[in-house]
Amino acid sequence: MAKSDYSRGRRPSGNSQKRNPKKPFFKKEGFQSKPQKQVKKSNPNEIRLNRYIANAGICSRREADTYIAAGNVTVNGKVITEMGYKVKLTDDVRFDGRKLNPEKKEYVLLNKPKNFITTTSDEKGRRTVMELVSSASNSRLLPVGRLDRNTTGLLLFTNDGDLTKKLTHPTHGVRKIYHVFLNKNLAMSDLHKIQEGLKLDDGPVTVDDISYIQGSPKKEVGVEIHSGRNRIVRRIFEHLGYHVTKLDRVIFAGLTKKDLPRGHWRHLTEQEVVNLKMIK
Q: Is 148 among the residues known to form the active site?
């Protein structure tokens, strides 16, 4: 054998048995390969506490960690300050004493078309707005307020009950603007009557603002109102002898129809959700 087939890092040539590539070239007695790390499977019924708090709509996960460390959170009556602590969905989790719901809050905005009623189901078999947002979420979303069957425009859906109460209560003055189409021109005298306030069968009603639509016939007007009474916009004009031929809600609580075609929906952005929660 020549000097140094090994010294040159080569195996000797000749009739030597070729190495089986499946077997290690060097095997020392007692040597064992490092065992692979076992990956612990996560429990689908448990989630991190900070995520639980974020899903409840209190704050972001990062902010939740700060509140946890400060002792603001209890689980089954015990204050938890441990980062990464996991809870079960059945646990009693409280933030500053208030019980939380771990369901992730979702917010979907629909540009409602005509001929859909605002209800979760209809015994007469009529089409409902729920058909239009059926693919938006796996959660049970409910409409915030309502629009008449023939009224089009913005309709918000969410599983956030607290926000729904806020947006539907008239004391919060949620801004709603409608584009109203009438069967005839609105007289200036009647526009002033609406501005000053009318008395309907179920009590007085005032609008926040009303004006003609610039560049359009005087049978088209814009109305801003925060009342949520049934068919209130249509009834205002009917009281003065007009018929509303078309009614479209173009703004709701600061949300607009920009880039949202009729019959389509979209999820709100994080900033839009923040803006809604800031409404007092």
A: yes
